Amino acid sequence: MKQLEAFPRIPLAILPTPIYRLESISRRYGRNIYIKRDDMTGIALGGNKVRKLEFLLADAKAKGADVVLTAGGPQSNHAMLTAACAGKLGMKSILVLKKRGELAGGNLILDQIYHADVRFVDTDIYDDVYTEMERIMAELRSEGHVPYFIPVGGSVPLGCLGYVGCAREIAEQCQEMGIRFDSIVSATGSGGTYAGLTYGAKLFLPGIRSVGIGICDDPFADIALELMDGIRDLMDAEVSGEREDIHIEFEIGPGYAKPSPEGCAAVRRLARGEGILVDPVYTGKALAGFFRLLEEGYFEGDGDLLFVHTGGAGALFAVDLLPED
Amino acid sequence: MNLLELREMLSCFPKAPLALHPTPLHRLYRAEEALGYGPLWIKRDDLNGIGIGGNKVRNLEYLLGDAVSQGRRTVLVSGMEQSNLCALCAACCRRLGLDCAIVHNGARPDRPEGNALLNDILGAEEIYLGPVDEAERSKRVETLALEAERQGRAPYVIRNGASTAIGALGYVEAAAELAEQIAADSALSVLQTVCVPVGNGGLAAGLVYGTALLGRPFRLELISVEHELAPMRRNLLALLADLERLCGVRMPYTLEETAALRDAYRFGGWGIIDPAVEKFCLWFARTEGIFVEKVYTGKALYGVCDMVERGLFSGGVCYLHSGGIGALFSQYR
After folding, report:
1. What pLDDT was estimated at residue B333?
2. Contact A267/A284 with Cβ under 8 angstroms?
3. A280/A204 same-domain check
C-alpha cells in the first residue's frame, strides 16, 4: 500500500483541526458527543474542501495548469474555497455555478473578494454545467491556457485522499486524548468526504461506524463505493470498501439548498448551546439528521460519537433562516 | 518574571475557558514572496473557534469569568450594529448559560446582515436605541442595568468595548502564549516584532503589560486604527496603570521601551473606509486566502506591509489577526 505521503500535496490547511466535547449537546442527549472542527482549516471561512484541494491543486500544479475550473451550486463552499486556494497558488479560477432565480450574498461575496470568474448556468442539472465547462475548457486551450478540471465537491479519488488523511488524523487525536469513537457522522453532498472518511476509517479506525447524512437525494451508497474503489486503486491497497461499511441516512427537507425547519433549528441549537456556527442548508441539515438519529436511538449503547463540522458558514449570510416557532 | 510566574499571576483571576487556545501561528509564504521580505508570521486570533472568532474572546474569558464568579446572570454589552464584540459576547454567553442583552445605537435594520444576523441566530436580546452617540449609549446601558438589577436579573455590564483592566488580562495571557509558542519552535527564534491593531487599546495594553513583565521577548508595533498618537498614548497609559493596580505588579519597562506607537495608518480614524485599504484587503485575500475586514484588521495589516516595504523591520515579523470577519458580510454587496 502507498502511504499518503507518497502523493504530491501542497499544504493549505492548518492541521490538525481541533476535536473537543460539546458540553451542552452532550448533556441534552446524555451521550459524549464530540466535534471535529474542519470549519477551522484557516483559509477563508474554512471547510472540508481544503483537505481535498491540497491534493487536487498539487496535481494541477504538476500538470502545469494555470486555470482551475470547478462547479457547484450558487452558494457552493467548495467553489469558493477552490477560488481561495487556487488564487493563493497563483492560478486563476473559473467557477461554473448552477443557478435558478436570484440568490446573492454569502459565498458569492467571498467569490467576489477572491476575484473568481463566476459564470452561471440557468439549470437544475450538472450535465448542463459540465457541457458548459467543456466548452470553456476548449476555448481556454485554444488560447494557450492549461485548464484543470475539478468536478462538484472535488469528489474524485485523488481529492478523497484528503479525508483518508482526516481519518488518520482522528485516529492520532483519539490516541492522544485517550478516547474511542463508536461512530463518526459527516455531511454528504457529493460523496467524496464520506468516501474518504469511510475508507480511512477502515484503515486507521477499525471497528468504527462512518455515518453519512445525505443532504440531497443522490445514490450516495453507490457513489461512495465507487469512490472507495478508486481510492483503493490509487493507494494500491488490499482493503476494499464493502456495502456493509456504508451507512447513509438522508435529511433533505423541502429540497437541496433549501432551508428546512429542522435544519434551522439545528443551526440555532448549536449556536446557542455551543457558540458554533453552521450554515442552514449543508452542515446544518446534516446536524439536524444527526440530532434526529440520536432521538430515534440509532446509536445503540453509550459509546462516544463524533460529528465532523465540514464548514460552509459563508452560506449563513445568504440563506434566510426560517422563522422560529 | 518568567512564563511560569506570569501564568501563576493570571491564575489568581477567575476565567471562563471559551476559546481554543493557543491560536495557530503560521508563516505567510505568499506575502513574503510578494513583498520580498521574510519571515512573516500571522497569529490567528480570528480562528479561536467561537462564533465567527476574534480577539474579544480573550477579553471575555476574564470578564465573563468575573461575572460568573460574582453570580451574575445577565450580561449587558453595547456597540454599533456591526460590533464584533457584541456578536462574540452573545456566543460566549450562550456557551456559559448566561443571558445576553445587546444595546446598539442606531435603528433596528430591516434585514439583519453580518454580525447583526449572527446576533439573531444566537437569540440575543437586542435593544436598538436609535440615533444616540456613544456617551449617551453608555448612560442608557447603566440605566438598563439598574432596571435589570431591580428585576432580579443579576446584570453584569461589559464597559468600554471590553477594554478594561480585567478584559485586558486576556491579552496579558496572549503575550505568554506567544512567548510559549516561540520557545517551543526554534524556527521562531528570529521573530523580533509583533504588530497589533489598536482601537480603544484593550488588546494592545494587555500585550504591552505581558510583554514587559516577560522581559520583552519581542518588540511590539502598535498601529492605531482609531486615535491619533496623543489620545492613543493616553488611553494605553491609563489601561496600563489599571493593570498594574489590578495585578499588583509594576511594569519593569515603560510603554515606549516595550512598543512603538504608530498613527500613520488611521485613514481618517474609526470606521472610515479608505480605497487604498479596500484594495489591500482584496490583495491579501487573493494572496493568502485569509480575510481581513476594511476598518480594523485591514488598516493595521496595511500598515505592517507598508512598513515592510519601507524597510523599517529587521528580523521576523508577526501580525496578530484580531478577527472581525462577521462585519465582512455587511461591507460588500
Report:
1. 57
2. yes
3. yes
